[in-house]
Specification:
The complex is a heterodimer of chains A (about 325) and B (about 200).
Chain A: H1 10-21, H2 27-38, H3 41-56, H4 66-76, H5 95-101, E1 107-109, E2 113-115, E3 133-135, E4 140-143, E5 161-167, E6 179-185, H6 204-208, H7 223-231, H8 236-240, E7 242-248, E8 262-265, E9 268-274, E10 281-286, H9 291-307, E11 319-325
Parallel strand pairs in A: 4-5
Antiparallel strand pairs in A: 1-2, 3-4, 5-6, 7-10, 7-11, 8-9, 9-10
Helix pairs in contact in A: 1-2, 1-3, 7-9
Chain B: H1 8-18, H2 22-44, H3 47-64, H4 74-93, E1 104-105, E2 111-112, H5 125-143, H6 147-158, H7 163-170, H8 174-195
Antiparallel strand pairs in B: 1-2
Helix pairs in contact in B: 1-2, 2-3, 2-4, 2-6, 3-4, 4-7, 5-8, 6-8, 7-8
The chains are: A alpha+beta (about 325), B mainly alpha (about 200).
């Protein structure tokens, strides 16, 4: 059976000429373009113009000045190297895979909930998106590596005491340890907490550049995130010292140096008291009275972070959120 | 999914360089200086700044090459350092989103057009003049693209990288990269048409 479709218009063909020139259209679509070109001289001229442009562009690349190489080699003569890190044994995981897997969001709300937010996460050793959640024999919940296992820490047999140690993802800069440790007592853990299995993207600049909505979604527009925050309950104690921690999982770009140190939303001020390579930071959000205020604060924080960063580099594949006690 | 991320030659150079072999590192600089230079140039514009930032990038690369863990292609790692260095510079320089047109400085300190990429095709003097004008027009038009579009054009059409590699470098899906590049090229054609 031959599938027939309405012939392409000139405008439609011209949208496809670059890809046609590169042979990157599928066979069927290329045939449609060719059929149009066979009968349209104007578009054939356009095609020649496109080809000319494509052949010119490589010439626009500048050769680096010879002085660059010389100066670099001279400079490194005085520079010592940092100690080696052992190479990863894992294979590279394409970004898309990681982004999809890193729907990992684990949220710990002091006084109320421990919420592992993912079923599975595969990240590299530098992966940042998430932490491994394990429950040891003494009913201690420990997060100890940047990977999450499918452990339901909010199970019926609640631990007496939970330690949440976040290594790698949140490195303490002024201490000797490689992680922070936050303790949450068993009374603070709640059974039957909600899960969020959705990857949330956030990118201020791509959004402003008119990217498709399915490529980058504003956190505000994520029903899953909103639902999650709506499900969080804070106690009076939490309101005094809630802390939220955001760990970004876009491991391709280290833009943590450019993150803001504090964020203010309405009457809530969150001040960063820790920042690591792979996280947005750990923020103390004093004054938040409702989870949705934290939600707004988080959104503002990410927007502020993105706003100072030039286009193209501020997209998040996904992120992890931790809400923990500030005690 | 298993992906061969670096060539054996690259792996060897990386290992030697991370062991402190400056000669091997020099080979790495040669391999990546064009990508780094053009990427920085497209972001910063100014030649002096570009040179300073490029030097900083390679010095950082030398200092931290032992930290490369092989989780992504080495080129992606280099590009990540490049982008971060540019962001750092722009942040501290308090640049706005509107970057200056790329300009180039000759040895006398005058701003001139950059040297063309090496081109071995013999052309007549007239042809060379036309080509130079064409390249100038295209280069200036590329500089007028939104930075996000300019970035993919530089990587794809100036540096000749594959869609897959660009996708990895930018942390995007291949399909997103393809559509972004197509939009960028179409916009580039519009800009060129407006300037002709």
């Amino acid at each position: 059976m031959i599938l027939r479709k309405k012939p392409l218009t000139c405008d439609e063909v011209r949208e496809l000429l670059f890809e046609y020139s590169e042979n990157s259209l599928d066979e069927w679509e290329a045939a449609r373009v060719k059929a149009h070109l066979d009968g349209c001289e104007a578009c054939r001229r356009e095609l020649e113009s496109v080809k000319a442009l494509l052949s010119t562009m490589p010439l626009c690349a500048a050769e680096p000045p010879a002085a660059l190489f010389d100066s670099v080699m001279a400079k490194i003569g005085d520079v010592s190297q940092e100690p080696k890190t052992s190479r990863s044994k894992k294979r590279f995981i394409p970004y898309g895979t990681v982004a999809a897997a890193c729907a990992a969001v684990m949220i710990v709300v002091a006084g109320q909930q421990v919420i592992p937010m993912t079923d599975k996460v595969g990240v590299n050793d530098n992966g940042i998106a998430a932490v491994e959640v394990e429950k040891d024999g003494s009913d201690v919940v420990t997060t100890s590596s940047p990977e999450i296992k499918n452990e339901d820490t909010a199970s019926e047999d609640k631990p007496e005491k939970a330690h949440i140690t976040i290594e790698s993802a949140f490195k303490v800069s002024d201490g000797d340890t490689d992680g922070i440790q936050i303790e949450v007592t068993s009374s603070q853990l709640v059974v039957g907490t909600p899960r969020m299995d959705e990857t949330v993207h956030y990118s201020a600049d791509t959004a402003s550049a008119g990217e498709p909505a399915d490529a980058d979604r504003d956190i505000k527009n994520s029903g899953a995130v909103r639902t999650f925050f709506e499900s969080v309950r804070l106690t009076a104690a939490d309101e005094a010292h809630p802390v939220f921690v955001c760990g970004k999982s876009d491991f391709l770009f280290d833009i943590s140096d450019y993150y803001v140190e504090s964020v203010v939303y309405r009457n809530i001020e969150a001040e960063r008291y820790e920042l690591s390579l792979d996280s947005i930071g750990i923020f103390s959000a004093l004054g938040a009275e409702t989870p949705m205020e934290l939600f707004d604060l988080l959104d503002k924080l990410i927007a502020d972070n993105c706003s100072g960063i030039p286009s193209g580099m501020s997209s998040f594949g996904s992120f992890a959120i931790y809400l923990v006690s500030g005690e | 999914m298993s992906v061969e991320i670096n060539t054996p030659e690259e792996e060897l150079l990386i290992k030697r360089a991370s062991d402190g072999d400056r000669e091997a590192f020099g080979e790495i600089v040669k391999l990546y200086q064009k990508l780094v230079y053009n990427s920085v140039k497209s972001r910063l514009g100014n030649e002096d700044d570009t040179m300073d930032v490029c030097q900083d990038i390679f010095v950082k690369l030398w200092r931290t090459i032992g930290k490369y863990r092989g989780d992504c292609r080495f080129s992606t790692w280099v590009y990540r350092i490049t982008v971060n260095a540019c962001l750092d510079f722009l942040r501290h320089a308090k640049f706005t989103a509107t970057e200056p047109m790329p300009t180039y400085i000759d040895k006398d300190g005058d701003e001139v057009e950059a040297e063309l990429a090496d081109d071995t095709v013999a052309v007549s003097p007239e042809g060379a003049a036309v080509r130079k004008e064409t390249v100038k027009l295209v280069r200036e038009s590329i500089a007028r693209l939104p930075s996000e579009q300019r970035e993919v054009v530089v990587l794809r059409d100036l540096e000749g990288l594959s869609y897959e590699k660009i996708a990895e470098m930018l942390g995007l899906e291949v399909g997103t990269v393809k559509s972004r590049i197509n939009r960028a090229r179409l916009r580039l054609r519009e800009i060129i048409a407006e300037r002709m």
